[in-house]
Amino acid sequence: MPADVAVRASAVRVLVLDVDGVLTDGRIIYADEGDELKHFDVQDGAALVFWHRLGLKSAIISGRKSRLVKRRAKEMRVDAVIQGKLQKRAAYEQVLKRFRAQPDEVCVIADDLMELPMLRRSGLAVAVPGAAPEVKAVSHYVTSRPGGAGAVREVVELILKAKGLWDEILKRYE
Predict the structure, then answer these.
(1) Residue 32 pLDDT > 90, yes or no?
(2) Helix (H) or strand (E) segment spanning residue 160
(3) How many Cβ atoms from other residues are within 10 Å of residue 94's Cβ?
(4) How many angstroms separate the Cα of 9 from the Cα of each of 25, 36, 52, 126, 133?
(5) How would residue 38 be classed by pLDDT, with cut points 50, 70 and 90?
(6) For residue 120, what are the domain limits?
């Protein structure tokens, strides 16, 4: 991990996630009845459970509204879920206030243009490989794993290792 990314990661205590393209592969599937289906990665979910066991906070900020997101967020113990916000800056400010966090204590993982204001105002801005070029350009780190296929797990591990907390997670499984 680059030294500047490690320094930024060591300060993070709040994780802010987009959904489509980050927690999922970005595909939206509609069933005949009109229900929306999404693919979530189990390792991303496990990583968020690890994150929360250490007392760290998380939020989902999504431009779309979905019952599935609310359900999955509950399973992953996400602290705050804000949906239906295409202008994400105001929702991001709510998260900062709720967790009494400074921007340098926040990692944002994103893939598209509406997340640019959050990325620019975070201590650790992360893009997934399929992100828009403008998102990658303002990010401090681009994951090797794609959205919906372990990108969140990769970032959680990176941050916990930078904070010296990864061994605490490993001890639980020895």
Answers:
(1) no
(2) helix 151-162
(3) 15
(4) 24, 34, 16, 11, 22
(5) confident
(6) 3-171
**Crossing angle between the packed helical segments 151-162 and 42-53, to the nearest 10 degrees:** 30
Q: How is residue 164 annotated by DSSP?
A: T
What is residue 63's predicted lDDT score, i.e. its pLDDT?
87
- Cα dihedral sign, 60-64-70-76: negative
The CATH number covering residue 85 comes to 3.40.50.1000
Mean pLDDT of the chain: 93
DSSP three-state, residue 66: coil
HSE at residue 22, side-chain half, CA atoms within 13 A, is 24
Per-residue pLDDT tens digits for 122-152: 999 999 999 999 999 999 999 999 999 999 9
Predicted structure pTM score: 0.92
CA 113/CA 132 separation, integer angstroms? 7
* Residue 58 tokens, joined: 């998380």
Number of domains in the chain: 1
